[in-house]
Sequence to fold (224 residues):
Amino acid sequence: KQEVTQIPAALSVPEGENLVLNCSFTDSAIYNLQWFRQDPGKGLTSLLLIQSSQREQTSGRLNASLDKSSGRSTLYIAASQPGDSATYLCAVSSNDYKLSFGAGTTVTVRA
Amino acid sequence: DAGVIQSPRHEVTEMGQEVTLRCKPISGHNSLFWYRQTMMRGLELLIYFNNNVPIDDSGMPEDRFSAKMPNASFSTLKIQPSEPRDSAVYFCASSFAGVTEAFFGQGTRLTVV
Fold:
């Protein structure tokens, strides 16, 4: 059974600081890993998708890396802004089509 | 494409009533997922389908919950009878064979009183 863990559970940083969010998973037989953002009371918005054959993916200030063999992914957000405050979730798509989520990291960026 | 469409957006019902949640996946996607989200338990996978066939329903909490996917463009999640502890936000998501990016609907906020 795929287990996905996100550390830390919460993070508070001053504006301008870089953010580092971690995700680990137990079964390396995956199709891809996806990072989502969720604002309070809202749905999940896809940020980045990394295929199992890729090492990293970038979109603007966001960069996500994937080390499939060690079961780890890291999401970097450069020069954080108050608008980046949200909960960030990682999800792993396994070979049985299942999409498994971590519990998320709640980020607060202080102005 | 309008994305994953869920209805209703909000549902308030009395305990014991039947509730039906609906989902229209993105056209061309053949994997569909139903999740439930609460503050206490986070995001829980209830059931997922591939090519309209249920692959794993081990996350369905009780026999009161059932899900169907009669065709590639429609799925329902039914709770009968509903109970106050079923109150949560229910999300539907779709992708292509679990390989492509998964997209979520806006969710249905269910309140059972």
Summary: The longest strand of chain B covers residues 42-50.
